[in-house]
């Protein structure tokens, strides 16, 4: 499925007059406006390969049709998103769901869509048909050395695939933990997991990063061996300078102050990246910004402040990835919504008057500090995000264009009504 520049241009032509009107007020502060647009254009968000099919819950799965049947079709789907919004210029793969048969060809295909490979993800939370040992009681934490070794070898194989594709990071998410009190010796589980991560870390190329993703609970319901940012930080610190913590927004206990976690990890140089999503109850993996957009903004507020303080590049120094998937929407439409929500939060955070905020804090002017943040959050930055897309060659309204072209119908004709993507 290829989207031509002509199609996008004619979509934009029909809308550009209205767009210019919406943009007009922004020309009063032209310097700030231009700087935000440039930053938005540079900001790319990686799409996870497993979000391209309709996700499942443990109660059932309802494929929407036209789902990608192969790695090549997944790349083509992300290429389509990127053509529409010019902000989804990377894909994050999952092994073994996405094993590339011919890495060179896969790389070329991604390249033809302007896509890079973001972090590769390992999988030691499921048993694969050809696998000798079972992960029923964990992987890197397992009491049996053979199971641990199998998990280590798998991660090293994932790195190898990533190297062939030009990826620069490995995300390790472990489902390891226990479901009942007494089941696990916490200290031994930690030590064994650390040992395994050390072996994986040793296989990491010099210019790679290892992301240690934490999660409070699920699938284990009593303890998780990498259960919170404190444990992840501890593993990452013990591993060394190439290891970082990865924050998945859905992986906290209710009401956790994620923006504060982000601020501290960033300050310590140990924040690696994100899995963006949203949730109301647990690891719901809902569309970014769909439930708590203010929280997303507050996180970006810490990111912009903290990254600027450390002289980091917003575009390249952290891993920006989506981790969302569910049952009821067209996955491509959902991803367009997630990307836009992330861009809006980022643009609003760029609006914050940081000097005024610091001054208010120094004066203990609580009201003014709150006003400054809310003023940015309540600003409609959609015209800026649309302008960034337009300048980069994308569509003013990606979702509207996707719908008007009946892309899902075309994909169903091409791939069938019952195609099911590999993944969760
Ligand atoms: C699991 O809850 C984690 O969020 C993982 O990052 C991710 O969902 C998984 O690796 C994809 O299967
Ligand atoms: Zn995740
Ligand atoms: Zn998750």
UniProtKB/TrEMBL annotation:
<keyword id="KW-0464">Manganese</keyword>
<dbReference type="GO" id="GO:0046872">
    <property type="term" value="F:metal ion binding"/>
</dbReference>
<protein>
    <submittedName>
        <fullName>L-rhamnose isomerase/sugar isomerase</fullName>
    </submittedName>
</protein>
<dbReference type="InterPro" id="IPR036237">
    <property type="entry name" value="Xyl_isomerase-like_sf"/>
</dbReference>
<dbReference type="InterPro" id="IPR050337">
    <property type="entry name" value="L-rhamnose_isomerase"/>
</dbReference>
<keyword id="KW-0413">Isomerase</keyword>
<keyword id="KW-0479">Metal-binding</keyword>
<dbReference type="GO" id="GO:0016853">
    <property type="term" value="F:isomerase activity"/>
</dbReference>
């Amino acid at each position: 499925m290829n989207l031509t520049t002509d199609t996008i241009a004619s979509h934009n032509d029909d809308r550009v007059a209205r767009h210019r009107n919406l943009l007009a007020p922004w020309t009063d502060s032209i310097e700030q406006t231009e700087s935000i647009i440039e930053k938005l254009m540079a900001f790319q968000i990686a799409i996870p390969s497993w979000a391209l099919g309709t996700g499942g819950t443990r109660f059932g799965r309802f494929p929407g049709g036209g789902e990608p049947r192969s790695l090549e079709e997944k790349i083509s789907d992300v290429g389509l998103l990127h053509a529409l919004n010019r902000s989804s210029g990377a894909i994050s793969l999952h092994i073994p769901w996405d094993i590339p048969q011919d890495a060179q060809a896969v790389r070329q295909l991604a390249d033809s869509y302007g896509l890079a490979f973001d972090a590769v993800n390992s999988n030691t939370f499921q048993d694969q048909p050809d696998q000798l040992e079972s992960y029923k009681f964990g992987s890197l934490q397992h009491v049996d050395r053979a199971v641990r070794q199998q998990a280590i070898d798998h991660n090293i194989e994932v790195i190898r695939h990533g190297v062939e594709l030009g990826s620069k990071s490995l995300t390790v998410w472990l489902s390891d933990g226990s479901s009942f009190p007494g089941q696990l010796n916490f200290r031994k589980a930690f030590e064994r997991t650390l040992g395994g991560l050390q072996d994986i870390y040793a296989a990491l190329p010099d210019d790679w990063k290892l992301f240690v993703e934490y999660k409070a609970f699920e699938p284990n319901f009593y303890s998780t061996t990498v259960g919170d940012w404190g444990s992840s930080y501890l593993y990452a610190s013990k591993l060394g300078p190439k290891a970082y913590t990865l924050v998945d927004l859905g992986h906290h206990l209710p009401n956790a102050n994620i923006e504060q976690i982000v601020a501290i990890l960033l300050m310590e140089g140990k924040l690696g990246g994100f899995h963006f999503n949203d949730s109301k109850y647990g690891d719901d993996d809902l569309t970014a910004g769909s439930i708590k957009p203010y929280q997303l903004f507050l996180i970006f507020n810490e990111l912009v402040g903290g990254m600027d303080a450390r002289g980091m590049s917003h575009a390249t120094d952290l891993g920006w990835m989506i981790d969302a998937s569910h049952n009821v929407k067209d996955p491509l439409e959902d991803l367009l919504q997630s990307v836009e929500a992330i861009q809006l939060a980022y643009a609003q955070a760029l609006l914050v008057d940081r000097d005024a905020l610091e001054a208010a804090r120094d004066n203990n002017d609580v009201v003014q500090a709150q006003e400054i943040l809310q003023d940015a959050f309540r600003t409609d930055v959609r015209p800026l995000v649309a302008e960034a897309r337009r300048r980069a060659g994308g569509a003013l309204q990606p979702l509207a264009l996707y719908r008007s072209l009946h892309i899902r119908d075309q994909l169903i004709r091409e791939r069938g009504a019952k195609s099911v993507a590999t993944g969760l």
